[in-house]
Every structure is written in C-alpha cells, then in structure tokens.
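Morning run. Coffee first, then this:
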Amino acid sequence: MKVEELYEKLKKIQEPKGYYFNRDKDLVFDLLNGLLVKKERDGYMACPCRLSSGDYESDKDIICPCVYREPDVKEYGSCYCNLYVSREWNEGSIPHVVVPERRPPEFNK
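And here it is:
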C-alpha cells in the first residue's frame, strides 16, 4: 500500500469519528510512511512516534490509532505524535501544546 492510499482510507474511517489528520500534510505523510514501515517489519502498524517491540501482544496499546489517542485529543486536541487532531486544533482555535506521553514507562522496554 502506498502512503496516499493509506491517507485516503484512514481519512474516510476516522473523520466521521471526529479525528482529523494534522493540516501539515508533510508531517502526516512522514508518519503514515512510518506506519507502513512498521507494518512491513512487524506485521502491524504500531504508533510511528513510539518504539515498538515487534511483539504484537506487548504493543497492542500502541497499534495506530493507539488507545491513548482518544484521551489525548479530548484533553489536548492532538494525539501524542500530532497525526490525529481535532477540528479545533487544525483551525487554530485551541492552543497547540506538547502532548505528554501517557504510555506507562514499564511498557517502553
């Protein structure tokens, strides 16, 4: 699958749920490419901004969209890696802040 195809596929699935791609399309395509690289390497699309272990069970919480996306977007308007954002974040009507890591440190082995 190509980055453009993944972009269109995920956009159709996620926008109706209220999750939008960051308006910075270069960043989005870099992150989507990271997802495709991880899929090729590990067999699943783990979060492009986190280290994955290569073990599906250990990485279940960070398979994109990760379990942290919903609380991150709800609280900050963006997920940890800024791939998924709220409409307000993209419009600039809420501040853009650094989203803290929610994944427990013991998961990052």
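The CA atoms of residues 36 and 60 lie 16 Å apart. Good start to the day.
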